[in-house]
Specification:
Helix content is 32%, strand content 26%. With 112 residues, it is of the alpha+beta class.
Length: 112
């Protein structure tokens, strides 16, 4: 039996505001909900495939990542406090076993 995902409305609203720079509000809200689902699935320990635009805003990247606790602990260096960058989504790339991030406004969608 799958566990339900509890989403944060405040995260959705702030993400939608960042995404709305690129698209209309209904599209921004649906992408923000999908981004929150991605965040929660990754935090539950799932490995998720998703798409986002790279920094050049032309090239699509298909990423495979997670935020599973053991993976995060293994990849933390220094004080253990992650650096938060406004408007960025950080995850652990399971192919490179390294931290990666993308602009929230460049999020395209979850593949599976």
């Amino acid at each position: 039996m799958k566990q339900s995902i509890v989403i944060s409305e405040s995260n959705i609203v702030s993400d939608a505001a960042r995404i709305s720079q690129r698209s209309d509000m209904p599209t921004s809200m649906s992408k923000a909900v999908e981004l929150e689902v991605l965040r929660k699935r990754m935090m539950k320990g799932e490995v998720v495939r998703f798409l986002y635009l790279k920094a050049d805003n032309i090239t699509l990247r298909m990423a495979v990542g997670t935020l599973q606790k053991d993976s995060v602990k293994a990849n933390v260096k220094g004080t253990g406090v992650p650096k938060r960058v406004y408007g960025q989504f950080a995850y652990i790339d399971t192919e490179k076993l390294a931290w990666r991030s993308f602009r929230i406004s460049n999020f395209v969608g979850i593949i599976d």
